[in-house]
Amino acid sequence: MPTRPSTQASLPQTLADHAKAYGELILKEWNDSRNLWRKRTQLQVLGACGLGVTVILAGMAAMLWAVTPPAQIHSLWVLIAIPMAFLAIGVICLMAAKKYVQAVAFEHTRERFIADMDLFKKTNLVTKATELTVLPMATAHPYRLVLGAALVGALAVRAHPWRWLSGSAVLVGLLPKVISILSSQNKIQS
Length: 190
Known about the structure:
The chain is mostly helical. The protein has one domain. The protein contains seven helices and no strands. It is elongated and about 105 Å long. Residues about 1-10 have low confidence and may be disordered.
């Protein structure tokens, strides 16, 4: 069953646009998550340093107070105020770090993927893609299609391409692309 040429031209572009949108969404959420983690970590480190400096300065102040005769201590408030300033800085930084609570990473991507998978279940993307790409070639040249599939299979068996890839590279590099292609049905329907 032949389809309209405009549909044939628009389906691959629609899939590419949807994959690009997924890539942009993942990149945005990755940057947001990284920035949130960075801010929280910086505040926690600054707060811990403030508390550490407080302990050191309080210890030094206690030793100075212990070895200095009371008549020679001119500004006792300095021995108390300086460690308290660093204590305040440390506590404020640690309290500010609590505001940067890590939300579920990639929450929007997960919601988008679930919505796309629900839509994918309702429609049949594979049938449409097959009708647009393989069916015209199969009706015009069926033996070439079979011969091409046999050739690709023989080359794959002979070349062992799965040995060239590490599992983590495949997972990190291809999984988002595969997910975005599979979930692109939402833009096709709209």
